[in-house]
Amino acid sequence: MKPANSVLSGYGTTVFEVMSRLAMEHQSINLGQGFPDEDGPEDVRRAAADALMAGPNQYPPMLGLPELRQAVAAHAKHHYGLDVDWQNEVMAASGATEVLTGCMMGLIEPGDEVVLIEPLYDCYLPIIRRAGGVPKMVRVEPPNWTLPRADLEAAFSDRTKLILLNNPMNPAAKVFADDELSFIAELVMRYDTYAVCDEVYEHIAFDGRGHTPLITLPGMRDRCVRIGSAGKTFSLTGWKVGYATAAPELLAPIAKAHQFVTFTTPPNLQKAVAFGLGKDDAYFRGLSNDMQAKRDRFGAGLSRIGFDVIDCQGTYFITADFRPLGFEGDDVEFCRHITVEAGVTAVPVSAFYLENGPSHFVRFCFCKKDQVLDAAIERLEAFFGKS
Ligand code: PMP
Ligand code: GLN
């Protein structure tokens, strides 16, 4: 038989799936894959249920229902002061992942270079490579994850087509500082490139940090694709509703990809997300406050056990160095070890690197009920306390 595509067949099953399966096998508390254990707002779910029954349940417009596109534009104006033309600058899609895939399919010519910042979310490299892009990697390093400006500058060249920026950043839980964003914007302009901005955690930033979309910086309005996800903003990760905002010339090629991939997204979910995006400030503040309280609760527990916990500025995730616990193996072994022996699952941070990433950090997901977080800490405390 002739071989399948070599880029994708070179990848195994994602670390999230592997660890979730292992967690199930061992009845372990799954703090690996990032999903909340409580579904998002009841009124948003009710809106989806009502729309499902009322119909129509036929193909919505390719770019998304007008009411969702209007809601994305209104949300951008309300939260970031950004004026968006909903008819020409907004597209709904089946998750941020589909928008990202559309960006890579629509913008990259084989051989184009794409600047990426490690550690990075796992779908970035496969879709870039499948599109023929050549990744140029830059690393932020724990514990501060500061942007290494000279390295970033060196990664840009005339061959650069775009930078893919994830802010707030999974798994580093970093929120980029304003001066770092300005530096990135300056490079994007100097090299006449684009920025694809994965901002799915825009409403999960802590300690009073606001989120600044790169697209709001001077010179960036026509060069950025801003991506959001209802999965994160409404704690409904299974819905897979994402949205892109970009200048018309930039959105058009992405929409071309979208029309040949999924073409559209379930209409009842689009309606419900449109409703959700119009929620008052208290909802969005509540989301980040709740997550911040969970971070504090769980992070304090990890520190008590002896993990060296890295500062967490946003997202669902907290990263910890397990070396102080005296474990001899690497991060993959550690995750397997605590799943099987302690009944708590995390994911190895090395999985978020192209190669040769650090091997002594693990990522825990804390968007879980307090009693689940407490039970995980109790299990880890009991295990490491006695070993
Ligand atoms: N980007 C990042 C950084 C993520 O962590 C995730 C995980 N949910 C996604 C994109 C995917 O979002 P969606 O489920 O909307 O496709
Ligand atoms: N975004 C989630 C995470 O980082 C995982 C999504 C997935 O399983 N593909 O854990």
Describe the structure.
The protein is α/β, with parallel strands linked by helices. It folds into two domains: 8-40 and 282-386, Alpha-Beta Complex (Aspartate Aminotransferase, domain 1); 42-280, Type I PLP-dependent aspartate aminotransferase-like (Major domain) (Aspartate Aminotransferase, domain 2). Helices cover 44% and strands 14% of the residues. The strands form three sheets. Strands 2-8-7-6-5-3-4 form a seven-stranded mixed sheet, sandwiched between helices. Strands 9-10-13-12 form a four-stranded antiparallel sheet. Helix 13 (281-305) packs parallel to helix 15. The chain is globular and about 60 Å long. It starts with 5 loop residues before the first helix and ends with a helix. The mean pLDDT is 97. The structure holds 4'-deoxy-4'-aminopyridoxal-5'-phosphate and glutamine. Glutamine (GLN) binds at residues 14, 16, 33-34, 170. Residues 14, 16, 33-34, 170 line the site of glutamine.
* Associated small molecules: 4'-deoxy-4'-aminopyridoxal-5'-phosphate, glutamine
Largest sheet: 7 strands, mixed
What is the mean pLDDT? 97
Class derived from helix and strand content: alpha/beta
Would you list the SSEs in sequence order as H and E? HHEHHHEHEHEHEHEEHEHHHEEHEEEH
The number of domains: 2
Please name the fourth-level CATH homologous superfamily of the largest domain: Type I PLP-dependent aspartate aminotransferase-like (Major domain)
Here the CATH topology of the largest domain equals: Aspartate Aminotransferase, domain 2
Which terms would index this structure?
Aspartate Aminotransferase, domain 2; globular; 13 strands; alpha/beta; binds glutamine; binds 4'-deoxy-4'-aminopyridoxal-5'-phosphate; seven-stranded mixed beta sheet; four-stranded antiparallel beta sheet; 2 domains; 44% helix; 15 helices
